[in-house]
Every structure is written in structure tokens, then in C-alpha cells.
User: Fold these one by one.
Assistant:
Number 1:
Amino acid sequence: MRELIKVENLKKHFPLKKSIIETLMRVPSRVVKAVDGISFAINNGETLGLVGESGSGKTTTGRLVLRLIDPTNGKIIFDGKEITSLKGESLRKMRKDMQIIFQDPMAALNPYMKIGEAIRHPLKIHGIGSNKKEQIEIVYKMLEKVNLTPPKVFYNRFPKELSGGQRQRVVIARALITNPKFVVADEALAMLDVSVRSQLLQLLLDLKNEFNLTYLFITHDLATTKYICDRINVMYLGKIVEMGSFDDIYRSPAHPYTKALISAVPEPDPKIQKSKKKLIPKGEVPNPINPPSGCRFHPRCPYAIEDLCSKEEPKMKEISPNHFVACHLC
Amino acid sequence: MKNSNLIEIRNLKISYITKRGIVSAVDNVSFSIKDEETLGLVGESGCGKTSIGNSLLKILPKNSFVEGEILFEGRNLIELSERKMQKIRGLKISMIFQDPMTSLNPIMKLKDHFVETIQTHKPEISEEEAEKMAEKAFEAVGIEPSRLRDYPFQLSGGMRQRAMIALALVLNPKFVIADEPTTSLDVIVQAQILELLKKLKERFKMSIMLITHDLGVVAEMADRIGVMYAGHLVEEGTSEDIYYNPKHPYTEALLKSIPNTKPGDKKLIYIPGNLPDLSNPPKGCRFFPRCSKVMEICREKEPPVFDVEGSRVKCWLYKGAKIVEYERTNQG
Amino acid sequence: MDEIKNKFISHHIGSLFKEVFGSGTGIITFIGATILIFFLILAIFAPQIAPYNPTVRVSRSLRPPNDTFIFGTDNLGRDVFSRVIYGARIALTIAFIAVLIAAAIGIPLGLISGYIGGILDRIITLIMDAIYSFPGLILAIAIAAVLGPGIFNISISIAVVYAPTYYRVIRNQVASIKDELYVEAARAIGARNVVILLRYILPNVLPSIVVVLSMNLADAIMTEAGLSFLGLGIAPPTPDWGFDLSNGQRFVLSKAWWGLLYPGLAIIMIVLGFSMFSEGINEYLNPTIKEKR
């Protein structure tokens, strides 16, 4: 199968609770349009980066693809099978093949479970390994792969005894123990210290090569995508605005939002940073309950064309090989 | 007056008494900040930079213990009484915190925050005058003055941070401590806030101590940078010297380990090992277990601060250079 | 380092020292625990400790405290001291059984209700709130009157009164924990709901129960004494503090104060013991819970 993940016109609208008065007066339900119609595909063995700020919908997208939440509309296809409305036992069994690495390593681990047991649990659930002893051996091997050695010592530790970087390794180990085909890394490095990030990024790369994994790498830190992503999608307010390689996105960004994002990322080099031309749009990301009409970015866009950008939603166009943009001006 | 020292920190030691023992969070740190200068204090979690910021305003937790000198306007702040310190906070030295949601009172309208702050320091100012000052402050940071009637939760994250900046600056302090002011914000909002801080710095002629772990943020704003590791100030110099000519092995390693956007450079470098346990710090240099250039003496004796080509470096590699001494003054 | 410690202490003596090293709280827990252990020993080793058989007449009625009968005798000539010692058995037995039954009802219901939510949650919460809002002693009286005397029946009457407490605490904790990231992680690895409840949620809500348990035990003893005082509790001649209180109170006019004082003191002491112990445990556990975040 060339395409491991395929997503078509995916939408997720979270309903807002109505007050009693609003229900009685039959006011139509308001929704948060977290993801509002996105389409993309990830090939086997590929790493797709999903970049955006808060409110962009990138985290929701990750949860949708894994079916941790139900889509409002659209299709999700995994390994050739449609999983959009999968539930119950078949959904549970599929978890063996698709996993997630969370952002907050402390919150993602059960404080009362030894980390060895936490990593062994997926093996138990999916019946991998013929008995407990065998499963523990598998866990030991995984602990060594993620550099938590000696494994016998770490097996019996609790999360609060570990550092942030070590906890994240446990989360990674737990996600990969069943040898999944597809892994979502949801801001997996964001809560780690700067000097630890590189270490874990290298670990993710090594594991990807060893296990031939396919990643969806969600992040707001563009620089990390350079090392691990084959392609990058930029999201804004529930929509994908640009798709391309790191060089496309970073060196020749086409969408005004992408341009703003790139120029806003601070560079540690003081000469470059101080002389950089900064294209900072006014205002902040609008509320996803009432997104702007037409192109979502038009109220903040310095190049917006009156009547076109506010009325019509731009379609995704290919402007150079494998570089796509959803903008009327391109 | 440019080029004279606004605040001088000498041999600062901050320890915390905890159940685990006595944690030496900041050890023997000395530096100064001039008028209208921005110093960036960078380091990873646990390096002590936030403790230093808090010690300047004397808002450390009760289980802390501070030694050394913090010289401001001819007085040692460490020995100042709480009453005298209250006259300084907000008026002469102000702080911008990381998370505006928890540092603003959720049940107080923003206008009341301003009135309270202003009248605490200048009781002679009436409520109307204080509100006018608040309106001017909001204009300076780019918020509609009518929003003074709102509560903190009614503002977006970026606007709350602007409101906090306005509150910190309303009485025109000479010195502002910004503790991770943009860490919880999105990239574009962060850029907006940094632009704002730069403008305000020019306009109000303040000195700023910018505490952050993000070297990109200090590259934008700081004239000088101090690099902290495990409670020690390991290197201090101009932001260009620090970036283009790092002298301490930690500074060098840190710069190399940050994921960068240079095309084609796909090599990931990291610093092996772990942070030391500060309730039982190593005897000599605190970085020696992870240093690629470690020597025998590093394990035994804590290095003094050397003056190397204009930077100050706490590293035995520069043995032979002039040692920087900070004398204890008998003021305060 | 010693130098710093000395300087520090001389700067912030007294309250800060206690706060950091926790001796203030520690003392309360220690006293509470001591009282409880004391009564436990009384209950377990009653036959060895008590000088006389508490159900049998051993002397003249209503003799004031003296050398042979330390607490005097009651109206039937029984030794008050031995009755107080044996009374600990009933008090502790019924309290523990009642609290156990209450927890056995409240905890599972709270787990299911908090996790599933929806209409089931609303209905069960409504029922539990109704029971909870009823004055405890009166409800216990009503149930005890229907069930009749006997250790098990009384335990059930008291258990019904306290089950809603366990239900509420667990249900609210579960409702807030079920959105935690590690619960989502459990779902993400494919764990079944029952497994999530038992292995991921239950261990994280149980610490809050420990405090409730201890305070409950204090309450249960008071309720049991109340029932017996009103004649709805343990049937005589079994030694029971509540019954002895009621009995002793009848003869106070004849200046026989000892029949009232000693059982009363016993009740007060054991309730204090449980309360102090649970206060201390609460202080100890809650910082730990907060530290995890």
C-alpha cells in the first residue's frame, strides 16, 4: 500500500453547550469548527509535519486520524480500509497498529503504575508474547532501545522518580512496543528542555529507521521539522493553507500566513534576527466558533484583495512540484 | 544616565531548604546591569534564573535563604525591610510574569488592578487620575482603553500579556524583570510582544532583565547575555560574542544542540548526561561531568570568573587570564 | 552547609521551622494514632485486661469508684470499668463493618457513575443526594427500627447513611480524572473500559478515600452510640457505650455520676482519636497528591 493514511475533507465541529434559555428559544447550536475540511495523504515510511499555532486544529487532526475522537464529516482511510466510523472491538484491535506520543510526559503516565508495567500493558491487551515473562523481556529490549538502562532498574521505577526527558522516553517506548505502522507525535518535544530536545529527536529518527515507521509530526516549532519531516502541512484556523517540503516552506513560502510564521520565528543569531524583515500580521487568531468568511486569513492578510478573499474560499493549487498553496494570489 | 550601573549583583547565593535537604539553587553569581541596557539571562530549567529574578524583587518563597549583595540605588536589597521593599516594587523595579492568567486577579477588573497599584505607591493620586494613567498605559501597549472595564478572562492570551506589561510599566519603573514573558504564547503573538517590548524600552528608557530559555528571544532584545547552568553564571558577554564566539563549553554545546533552520544541516547534537542534583552539587565545576574538555582541576576546584576578550567566563580553560573580583561593599 | 542552616534558623525561628519539617501536623497524627492503637488493644485483649466479666453482677449496685472497682458499678452491680473496656469491641466492630459495607456500595457506584456519566449518573446522584441530605441519625433510626437489633443489622443501618459520602467523593474524583492525559493514553493503547477504571482510575482516586474512611469511622461510632442510647442498638447484656450512657444517665439524679462519665469519656476519646488521625493523614496525603502535577 503506497498511501498508509488518507484523509478526505475531514471536519470536526465541537458543539457548545446551550443554556436552558437558548434551548427553549431554539437558538441553533453553536460549534467550534476546530477542523473544517482538510485533505491530505501520508505514504508508507514517510513523515508528515503538521505545523500551526493554537487554534489551527493540528492537535484535533492528530486525534481524528487515530479515531480517538469521532469526525463530524469526511473520510479517514488507514492501510486501505476506511476507519471513519469504526468502533468497539475492531477499533480497539486497530490500536495495535496506530499509536500516539503525547506532549506532556508527566500527565501521560499513570502515577501509580511502574513504568515497566505501563510499557507492558499494550502487550497484554493485544496478546503479544505468550506469557508474562516473555512480555517483560520484550519490555527490557525496548527500554534499552530508548536508552533507559539498566532496564531491570528502570522497569520498577515510578514516573515521579524520572526526569522529563526520561519520562518522554517511557511514553515513546509505550507507543512503539506493539510495533505499530503509524505513530502520531503530538508536540512530543515541546515540554522538554532545549538541550534534551535534540536527543529525543534523534531517538525518534533512529526508531523510525529501525522499525520503518510512518509519522505524523505535530509541532509549532518549525526548526525541528527540518530534521525529521519529508513534507510539511501548514494549518490555520482549521484549514490547510500550504503543503510542501521544508525547503519549499522555509525558503519559498507562498501563503501570506506561512510567510508571517517564518518571519516570526526568532533566530538565535543576533545579526540575522535584528536585521530580519518581520512580517507580523495584526491582531490574533480569531475565534474558531465564527471563522472569517472566504479565506480564513483575510482579515489579517496584508495582501488581501477586497471582495475576492473575503467571499471565496481559495482552493489548493500546485505552484511547483509537490508544493501546494490555498491562496487567491498565487 | 547611560553606562552607569543601575543594579549590581555580587556573590549572590540562594538556597532552598526542602525535605530532600538544602538545595543550592544559585551559587556565587555576580553581574551588573547598566542604565537602559537589556540583559538576557538564559539557561534551562533548574539553572536558577527565575530564582535570581525573584530575589531582585524579594518575592522568593519562605523556605529560601539569600546571601550576598544586590545593590540598587546605593542600598543592598537583601537587607532591606519588607516595608521599604514595598516602596520599590512596582514603582522602581517591576516584573512581567510568564503566565498572566495566574498573576492577574481573576475577580478584579483590569482598571482596578491599575488603580490599586498606582494608589499603593502614590496615594495622593485620585481614582480618576489613576484611570487616565491606565488608559495611557493601554494605548502604549496597543489595547483599546475601553477594555479596562473587562476582567482578565475576557482577554485573549496575547492581550493579557500586553495588559500585564502595561501594569508593570504604568509607574515608569527604571528596571523591569521579564520572566519568560512569551513562553506560553504562540509564535506570531510572541513576535508582536517582542516588538512591543522593544518599542517601550526605547520610549521609557528602562533597563530590562529578560529571563528565558529561548536563545532566539534574547537575540532580538538583549544587549548582553548571561548563560546560567545549575546555579552558576558560566559565561557573560555581548549577545554577538556569546553567539559567534562562545567561550564556555556549555555555551558552545547549548548553541550547537538547538535545532536550527540552516539548510542541509541535519546533524542533531546534544549534551550527554544529566543535570546535577543541586542538593548535593559536585565539588568543582558544576558542568564537569558533561564537559567534553574536562581537566583534572575541574573536578576538584570551582573555577573563578576570568575576563576573556571582553566576556566573563567561569571556566578553567582560561586559567592565566585575569580573574574578575567582586568586592563586598560595606554599604546598605 | 551547617553554617547556612544555623543562620537560617536564627532568621526564621518557630513557625517556619514547623511548617517545613511538618512537626505541627505530625504531632496531631501521632496523638490520634496513639489513641486509636490504645483502643484497638483494649478491644482485642479485653478478656485479658478487664478485671471482671462485664455482663455479670459482681457487687452491690451503684457503688462509687474505689479500689476494687475503679470506675464503680452500674445499677445492676456490673463493673463499669470492664464494661467500658469490652464496649470498645462493639464500637470498633460495628464501625468497621458499617464503613466497609458503605464503601462497598459507594465506591463501585461512584466509579461507574463518574466514568459513564449521562442519565445513569444523574439518576444515581439524585438518589444518593436524597439519602445524603437526610439527617444521618434519623435515617439510621428508621432503618434500625425496621431491621431490628443485632451487630449486622445495625451495621447496615449505619452503612446506608454513609454510602453516599463514598459515592460522592469517588464520583467527583472520577469525573475529573477521566479527562486526564494518562486515561486518554490508556484508551489510545486499546484498553477496555473496565481495565481503565480499575488500573488507571481507581488507584488515583483511592487516596482521597483514606481521609473519608477515618472521619467516617469517627462518625459511625457516634451514630452507633446514638442508636444504642435510644435503645435501638445492641441488645443487653452486651456491653455497649451508648447503652451504658442511656442507662447511666437515668441514675445521675441519685448522684451516680460514674455510670455516665466513663462511657461518655470513652466515646469522646475514640472519636477525637479518629478525627485527629484523619486530619493528619489528610495533611500528609494532599501535598503528595498536589506534588504529582
Note: The mean pLDDT of chain B is 90.
Number 2:
Amino acid sequence: MKTRTRNFLGQLLTLHIPLVPFILFSLFPFYFMVITSFKADGELYNLKANPFIIQLSPTHPDYSGGPTLEHYQLLLHNTPFLTWLFNSVLVSVLATAISIVIAILAAYSLARLRFRGAPSFGTAVFITYLVPTTLLFLPLAQVVNRLGLADSVWALIVTYPTFLVPFCTWLLLGYFRTIPQEIEECAMVDGCTRFQALIRIVLPVAIPGIVCAVLFAFTISWNEFIYALTFISSTAQKTTTVGVTAELIRGDIFYWGSLMAGAVLGSIPIVLVYVVFMDYYVSGLTQGAIK
Amino acid sequence: MASVTLQELSKRFDKVTAVNQINLEIPDKEFVVFVGPSGCGKTTTLRMIAGLEETSDGTILIGERVVNDVPPKDRNIAMVFQNYALYPHMDVYKNMAFGLKLRRTPRPEIDRRVREAARILGIEELLDRKPRQLSGGQRQRVAVGRAIVRQPEVFLFDEPLSNLDAKLRVQMRSELIKLHYQLEATMIYVTHDQVEAMTMGDRIVIMNNGEIQQVGAPMEVYDQPINMFVAGFIGSPAMNFFQGKLTAQNSELFVDLGKFTVKLPKSQVNRFGNHVNQRVVFGIRPESISDREETGEHQQERVPAKVNVVEPLGSEVMVELSAGDHTFVGRLDPTTTARPMHEMAVYFDMGRFHLFDAETGVNLTHQ
Amino acid sequence: MPTGALEQKPRSFGTTTAVRAPGQDSFRKKMSLFFQREQVLGYTLIAPAFVLLGVLVAWPFCMALYFSVTDSWVGQPGAYIGLRNYWNLLHDAIFIQTLQNSFVFTFSAVLLKTVLGMALALLLFRTVRFKKWVRGAVLLPWVIPTALSTLGWWWMFDSLYSVFNWTLIHLGLVQVGPNWLGTPYLAKIAVITVNVWRGLPFFAITMLAGLVSIPQELYEAAKTDGAGAWARFWYITVPMLKPVLAIVILFSTIFTFSDFNIVYVLTRGGPINSTHLFATLANQIGLQSGKIGEGAAVSLFMFPILVLVVYFQLRFVRKE
């Protein structure tokens, strides 16, 4: 009996209690963003009001009407937020689709086929991932201009694969390597060409890995900032990340409420995807660790 | 015609020669077993026959067709892999039907063949299960069933029983033998287990270092091994080898084994005459060593020995003995009185010995 | 003389002589064709990736190299000026400041992430109840778009309305809250905090995966050998995690060093260039001011440093 309570206390002290600050640290900013987005301006810009909560009791001196939707309304009516959202979805979906296809082909080729220079090709692909986007954005802006894609979501759809493909190839390469070669060989004896074996046998078996790669690619695309900032200037073509950060500041006036609303709404799609597919995110990072 | 012919077949990986100019003809309907230690080239040879490895040199024929450049899917072969290679995302039925579906076989025909194969193998209730729901033995049967359904000219087996536990292995062995009788097809079987080779093959092909050492029926290879490698590889427990020298005295031949000699029967004098005073290896199988004197057709050599270890197996007793500087194993009757650390004289059956050239390993006994 | 049986290749045992292949030469040609097939397929499949990366990574990289040795302006091709851009930068106070910032920033952030990430990973490893929720909560900062979450932090650090200041004042610790983003020292702390917040999940989850892969028997053997908790951690956990740690630190160093989002949204590089990193400085010079040559030189300064980092990390991993 005594040991059980001691165990419980021990766990409490060494596990649950230390864990709390980490979780608070992780979640607080998001909580704060949500709270702020529903807070009326009166309360928001009140230096004395408690920033952690929205005042609900009408008799409180800081009360300003309770939670409000005005920031969201401003966001949705006075800014092309929905356009930005649509742009983000469009860019993310298309860039992901293109990248996944290219990555599957490249990863399969590197995993299975013996051809001269295969290891060097693999290393080259991996190295491009280490060339940061913040290095390439300047000249890429010129290339994009030259290709006539300036100021269009297509600039992003075309350039995002440059960092998505190496990452997805690396991820899928790991997955393909865990699929026993014998299955494909058997398929080839059964009557497939190499390519048919890839489509009918390898891909169905690799679906968890592919889902992982798709999720990561989509998330990274959605979050991307510097290319979207650099290549696109007209408001209607912007993606959510750039639109919210750039357009909700008029001169010196910060529409904080709407900024937070935009930040929240801009994050919701990804958070939803994340919640539904959380296991895949974790397994993707896990795979990366145990290369 | 589903014969398989290999002519001067070679395979090189960079600087390593895995298979070195092997020649073999396998007639239709034969069950031939490739056996040898790891790395001897047997699996590489099988994979070249399947088309999963490209040949470096030589020709492969299936029937009358040269198939070197023919992709695996067009060679009309079926292969059973060591790890079964079942398609994990398909149920058993679809696994077995896959090859036929690719060939656009009409569905009723597919269904007929799949069910027939399932019946033969006793896996009818498993048809809608996924591979991960099956035991090792069941997966193995599905893999075999997948091959049967294709009705190929040649069946290829790559160590299919290695991943099964001992009991299951024995059971599957006899089932595969029965399958061969039923299907009457050419089967090429690769294994490192010489017991499988002996029990299953019409003929055994023993390989080492990429070369064929000997080809023959099981008993032929067992009784007349062509060299020391084959003699030592086939048969369990292995043949005993004694390093010595062939000497002559008074027109009789002896094998000088250091602290004792073995006299060879008079009938063998002419055979080994040319090798007097050369180093030789005297070979005798454990079952040709007895602990009692017997009068029989063959001469017996009495060898005083000391018993080291006694291993009773029930139906027989394995005994490790020492004589002079040599250690060897005898297979004795369960009524033996052998006791560890005790002296005991044993008798070599001189009708069943082998003499090998110590330099080349060639068996001088059966020329 | 008995025929030796070893050196001869056992001849055909069949009754018929096999049909020979039609001549050695055309056979060799056919063989090379077949051999090519796997080669051809290999190259074909990897071609799209290669083309993409060639056109949109290799070429721009070369362009960046080219720009950096010219005095180009946006829309105006410039003349070759050799290494003058680099020379100027090395004598430019702002650039030196940026260089300093980058190293301090990267070093502190990665160090914090490693230590805290390890601690968090150990905690997560032992968490059984609500495992999914806890992991979900921990990973959230990494999933949310950085630019958007940084907006939240910006509001949290606002000079007037900062929630931290409000808390500090209400706890009676200060009279007036510090101007986080307006004070160079504090701004750096703010940027590092946000970066650690964003990057910690990656470290924690990846190291958790590494922890899970350590066989339990090692710990059991150590316990019977008399090792306490700290000894077990230091002599088993850390060495076994070295490969994972190396990879994670490698990636994190590269991405922290070249970070843009956080600094741009939070401080734009200020105050007084105290938070400028290579990326934001390059953006300011290259795009906002239009001096592409100089901007490219700034970006490229990153490259040799990154290469060195990668090299040493990989060597460290290979040694294991």
C-alpha cells in the first residue's frame, strides 16, 4: 500500500509535474492567439485588463462586451483572406502532388535499380536539401521573372518542389528500402515489367510512407514564407502566411485582433489535418531519426 | 518440353566470380536440387535461370529456347522465394490469381485454377485472408500455390523451407515431394541443407566456389563422392577424414596414420599402386565403424581407440573416439558398451572406405 | 592414370546436345542491350528530380555566385567586380553584427533545443497516460505555420501590451515592463525563445524515437552492474543516441542558421540590426534596397559555413 502511494507521488514529482511547464510552453501561444482573436478592441487595448481571459461578467470594470466576432468579420469582409486561403490550398496541393510523383520515381530508382552513379545521384539530391531557401531566394526571383511566372501562385507551385522533392525522396527512400525486394522479383516472375511492379505492388505496400510524405510536404508548403514573400507582390495572389503578416498592418496601425484572427484561421486547416493524421507525423519524424 | 540447359554459365560481380562456367542439362520432369555451402553460387545460378540476374557469360535454355535476353515474366517459370514474398496488400486468393490476371486469363479459368491449387495444398479456407494473418507454414503453401496456378514449364525454389521450424520442415518436405509426383513438372530446388537434397532430389548438384563439384542421384553421390568436399558435405554426421601416407610393405598396402596403420584389402592394391608414398586422406563414414567384430563379405580393420564422448540418440549411439592423433565419430548400435574415458577397439568396414589424394582432394577409390 | 575429376567441368548428363546460341558476338550485343535496360530505367526515373533541381537549384546557385561578384542592381545587370562585395561586407559593421548574431543565435538556440529536447524526450518516454494528447500538444508548435505563430509571439512581446509585462507588473516584480523588441539584448532573447519554441518538438519527438530504439536489456545489464540513473543516462542513453543527435543537430543548425521567418516577422532585423541574420540582411539589401550583388554575397557567406558544419557533423557520425 505504502509503495503504491509512494510510486504515485514519485511519478507525480518526476514525471507529471515536470511535464506541465513543457506542455504549457507549447500550447500557451496558441491559446493566447485564440483568446485575443475573440477579444473586443476595448478590452484588447486596455492596459489594465487581464490578458489571459476574456472578461465575461458585465459588472467587471474591464468588461467590454465579452467575446466578439468582429475581428473575424473584419478579416473575412475587408481583406481577401479567403482568396489567400484558397491560394494556400492550391499551391500546397499542387506542389505536393508534383513533388510526390517526382520523389516516388526518384526514390524507387535509387532504392532498387543498379545503375552507374546511383549513390552520387542520391547524395546530390540530399545535398540540395541542405541548400537553404534563404540562400536561393534572390537568384530564384530572377529565374521566376525570366520564366514569366512573377507575381503568380504558379511561381510557388513550380519552386516549392525544389525543397519538397529532396525531403520526400529521402523519406520514401527509407520506406522503399524496408520493402523486401523479393516481392517485386516475384511480381516480375509472375508477369510484371519493372514499372508495373512499382505501380501494382510497391506503391500499395508503401502507402503509409507515401501518406507521411504527402502530409509533410503539404505542411511544409503551407508554412512556407520567404518564397511567397519574395515572388508575389499583388494582394490577390498571396498565400495565407504572407497575406496575414503583410496586409493587416495599414501604415502604423496594427489590427491586432484581426491579425490574431488571421493567424488562427490560417493555422486551422493545418491543425485539422494534423489532428486527424497525427500518428503519421510522429512516425515520419521517427523514421527520419532511425535512418 | 521443359528441360533446362546451362552452357558455360558464369556470373561475375565486379571482381568476384560467383558462378564459374557451369554446364548442366536438366531433363523435363526432373527434380534437381542444387546444394552447397553459403556463397557457393547456387542461388545466383537459380536467379539467372529465373532472369533476376543477368548472365556474365554462357547460355541458358528452357526447352529449345535461348532465354538469356528474355525477361522473367516471359520465361514461363514460377518461383517460390525463401521469405515467401507474398503481396501483403492482397488476400490469398488475389495473391494466387495475380499472375493469371496479368496475362488476361478469363476469370472463370482463374477461379478454377486457384481453387484447384488451393485444394491440392489444403488452403481452401484461407483464400480470403491476408498474409499477415497466416502462419509460416500457411504462407509457404500460398507461395507454392501461387506458383502452381501459373502452370509454368519450370518451378524454381529458393530455400523455401529455411524459415520453417524443424517439424514443419519435415512435413513440407514430403508434401513437396508428393507435389512433384502429382504435377510431373521440372523442379529446380536450391538449399544448403543436405538432408533436403538427399531426400527430395532425383539428382543432386553439389556446388562449391561457383563450380559444380558433382552431379548424380542421391545414393550415387553418397556412396561415390567425387572428391573430399562432396564426401564431407553429404552425409550427417560427416565422413571421418584421417590424414596419412600410403605405404607399401610386402606387396600389401597400408595407410600410415601416425600412431597406427590401416591395412587396405588385397583387392585394392592395384588401384592405388601409383600413389605409394604419397600423402593421402583416408575417409570412412561413421556408420561404417562398428564396435564388434563381424564376419562378413568385407574385411574389417581393428583399430584400438579411446572413447571421448557418448551421445545416446535412442535408435543409435554417436560416439566420439580418439586413436593416435586423430579424432573421429562412430555410429554404434544402442547396445554398445562404450563408456567415456574408456578404451575400446573399433572395427572399420574396409568395404566402405575412401581414399583421397591429399593434394587435390580427388577420390581415388572410384575411378 | 585415373582422370582427375576436380578440374574438369562435369559435362552434360543429358542425352541430347543443346542448341547453341547463334554466335558469341551478337550474343554480347544482346546482353548489353538487356543490361542497358535497367540502367535506362534508372536514369529515366531519376531524371525529373534531376531536371527540377538542376534548373531551380543548381542554376540559381550559380547565378547567386555570379551576382555576388558583380555590382548588379535589381533589373540592372552589373559589371564584374571580383570579390569586392565580400571585401566590403567584411568591413561593414552591420554585416559583422549579423555574423555575430548568427553564431550566437544558432549556438544558443541549438544548445537549448538539445538540452530541453532531451529532457522532454525522457519525460515523453515515460508518459503512459494520455500519451497521444501529450505528444500532440508537444508537436503542435512545429506544425503551425511559423509566420503565423510568430505573429502571436509578436503580440505577446508588444512594447505596450505584452502579456509578459502585464504578468511581471502584477506580480510586483517590475514597475514598467521592458520593451522586449526594442531593446537589442532582449530582442535577441525573444527571437531565440520563439525559435526554441518552434524547434523543440522536432528535437523531442526525434530523440524520443531514438530512445525507444535503445534495447531495454542494456539498461537491465547496467542495473545489475550497479549503475545508477545518472550513470545509465550518461553511459548508455547518450552514446546510443549519438547518431540521432548528430542528425538532428545537423538539420537544426542549418535551418536555424538560415532562418528568416521568425526574425522577419518579429523584428525585421532590428533593433539596430541586433537580430539580423544572413537571410534577413540579404533580403533587406538585395530586395528592399535592390543591391542584388551585395545581397547575393551576404547569402553566399552562409554557404561555406554550412558546408563546414555538415562536413564535421557527418564525420562525427561516420566515426561511430
Note: Chain A has one domain: 74-289.
